[in-house]
Amino acid sequence: MRVLIAEDDTALRAEIAHALRAHGFAVDASGDGDEALYCGNEYPIDVAILDLGLPGRNGLDVLRAWREAGRTFPVLILTARGRWQDKVTGLEAGADDYLVKPFHIEEVVARLRALVRRAAGWARPVIEAGPIAIDTTAQTVTVDGRRVELTAYEYRLLEYLALHAGEVVSKARLGEHIYDEEMERDSNVLEVLLTRLRRKLDPERSLEPIETLRGRGYRLRLPVSGE
Amino acid sequence: MRLADSLGARLTLGLAVVLVAFLGLAGLALERAFRDSVEQAIQENLEVQVYLLLGAVEIDAAGGLGMPDAVAEPRLGTPDSGLYAAIRDASGERLWQSESSIGLDIPWPGLGPAAAGNRTFARIQAGESRQLFALRHAVTWEIDGENRRLVFLVAESAETAAARVATFRRALWGWFGGVAILLLLLQALLLRWGLRPLRRAAGEVALIERGERARIGDDYPRELRPLTASVNELLASGGRRLERYREALADLGHSLKNPLAVLRSIGGDPATGERGKEIQDQVERMQQAIDWHVQRGAAAGRGGLGQTVVLGEMIERVGASLARAHAERPIRLECGIPPSVSVRGDPDDLMEIVGNLLDNAWKWGRTRVRATARADREGGLVMTIEDDGPGIPANRRNSVLERGVRIDESVPGDGIGLAVVRRMVEETWNGCIDLERSDLGGLCVRITLPARSAPVR
Fold it and tell me: Is B114 near chain A, with CB under 8 Å?
């Protein structure tokens, strides 16, 4: 899950980025309104945290510009003043949720997850694909009730495919969403990751949950519920 | 109305005293002048009578005095006609008297040897009730080469004169009374007109106090302009100072937020160890204090000068925003507030109230949130926000209106929402907040705003 953090306070930005990475997000961060606008428009981000008091271009303008450009990723706005006028204006400008500073970082993570799920059309935090259950809150995966230990990248890969179940996801798109801009991307790494994930989920090769469509990408094949 | 209390009373009373004194003195002077002129006329008339008698008197050869039977003036021949005459000699002995004066004992003035001079005019008292104006005219008459002194005495009753003076006086005071009433009325009108700018200024200041006006108008008379200009300047500088304080407070709050957020997440970091929870608790307390004071500073005394908010529209807006933020919750807002209901005040402040209440309703409600508003008997506004959540037990309702009290620690919140609402309702609108049980099953928050702050049309 790739998240953009637009927050001008360096310490807070670093703190959020650190926490989100620890929670398995791919993080892009910006401390400036214009840069944030650019990142939101150009990077394939899944969710954004937007501080309303950004230098350069304020958060509301950035948000409106994103929406006008047709960018639909969910946006969590951060307000320092906590005035309802700010919250309502932000939500009316196209934000999906708000958080008043200061906040518990767990709260940010929970809100982001909920936003991403909601955007993908999932109401409940647990996505079930056949015998595979993905708890997006705890970030744990079970197959037939049996816990499967995944690395952060393996989890991200599975979660992204599950959130877009039934769709064919290209290798490039997959890479963009599980890695941030700073990461050197190598399609071989992705293939290795996928192979490991398949082996962990389906050691007996009886399930074949992820199918490869040659030249087009990958697809989570199992019927999904949790909507 | 005490005299010192009212400019109008002072001026009315002062001018009335001046007016009455002027009219009174003028009336007295006029009356006196009229009386003098009446007496003057009587004196002249009596002199004419003397000359007529002088012309009519006959001295016979023996030196006796004769008077024709028919004196020219018929009143002299009529008894008790009011006009009397007599002629005496120097010693006071009566030589002749008119028929009208027969039987009357008239105490003629200036008789006796001591009386010198030719002419005396006096007012005399004859008998009990009769007042007379009398003229004594002495002449020296040469009879047969001998000079004889004759005294002609004429008198006229004072009643006619008194009657004329009385008539004049009645007319005079009647007119003066009418004029005085007219002038007093005119004066009252003038005072009203003259003091109108003062009344208007007082009215505008009252409007400012109620938050319905920002400043006093500029179109005042020259004498009042220094005052109104000073009031405006005072208001402006007070407003600027308040704005500076508010900004300073908001800046302080804002600048503390990010460090607090960092501290809080350090507290939550497992690497911090067991004291992390302590750090988080302290951060929480600091945060609450900041929120409380910043919101207090931001809302205190903001009148929302002359602004009105369409309540239903605002509730729908906030509701739509909350529905967006809590898209996963199946909550439906029923807002039955007609567009004609509006509230006077600062829109930001009102949104703070509506936002906090609806946020609570959304947090606790299961499927339904209801907002209503109606006019109460005194013309104020009663707004309710209800939900179908678990509600608050009656014995805890008062305590949740205190700051920092949270009914359920497991649900996120700062514990100041209802306290902030209560303070704003009470301090900014002078209203009150009550918590009740809703027939939807959950909490019903009822806000009552007094008439002057909540116009319901």
Answer: no
Percentage of chain A modeled with pLDDT above 70: 95
The answer to whether A83 contacts B254, with C-beta atoms less than 8 Å apart, is no
pLDDT digits (tens, 9 = 90+) for B321-366: 998 888 878 889 998 888 888 887 778 888 888 999 999 899 889 9
What is the band of B457 on the pLDDT scale with cuts at 50, 70, 90?
very low
> Using the beta-carbon criterion (under 8 Å), do B287 and A118 form an inter-chain contact?
no
Alpha helix ranges (H) inside B273-346: 276-299, 311-325
Cα distances from B353 to residues B184, B293, B327, B335, B428, in angstroms, run 56, 16, 22, 16, 11
The complex scores an ipTM of 0.71
Contacts of A95 in chain B (CB under 8 A): 324-325
Residues in A touching B266 (Cβ below 8 Å): 15
Tell me what pLDDT residue A96 has: 92
Judge: A123–B298 Cβ closer than 8 Å, yes or no.
no
Q: Is the peptide bond before A102 cis (omega within 30 degrees of 0)?
A: yes
Q: Which CATH architecture has domain A2-120?
A: 3-Layer(aba) Sandwich (3.40)
Report pLDDT digits (tens) over A71-87: 889 999 988 777 888 88
With CA atoms as reference, report the closest residue to B338 among B358, B355, B316, B359. B316
Q: Which CATH class is domain A126-225?
A: mainly alpha
Task: Find where tokens 């805890």 sit.
Answer: B396
Locate the domains of chain A by residue range. 2-120, 126-225
Residue of B nearest to A77 (CA): B325
Two structure tokens written together for A12 = 């807070």
Q: What is the mean pLDDT of chain B?
A: 82
For residue B421, give Cα distances in angstroms to A210, B315, B349, B356, B418: 53, 15, 9, 7, 5
Residue B336 CA to residue A169 CA, distance in Å, equals 47
